[in-house]
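FIELD: query
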Amino acid sequence: MHAPEVYDYAIVRVVPRVEREEFINAGVILSCQRTGFLQAAIALDEARLLALDPHADIDTVRRHLSAIVAICAGDEGCGPIARLPYRQRFHWLTAKRSAIIQTSPVHTGRCTDAAAALEHIMDRMVRPLP
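FIELD: result
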């Protein structure tokens, strides 16, 4: 078994009306510096989003959330941000913003499997409770 690695993560939030500061958790970005892992997982609960703002532009929100996943993956179609080293991409994605898509503060954890940690955080913080 491998020794635990340190990772950083942030919760991706959708804030449909920024002035109200209400949000739903829609995903997680996780980075493990030592292993070079950078990945985002998204699970948008459209019904919850529409409960906060019945006029939310779901297509735009989906497009922006998909861009986060693509930037993490280094997709060339995402322009110069996707070509940055993975830690710089993580910091760019988790920078504080006043926009419809925001992230939580960055948190730290330890794991032996970054992909499994990402799924665990998605289950605890994003997906509906069982």
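FIELD: remark
Helices lie at 46-52, 58-73, 86-93, 114-125.
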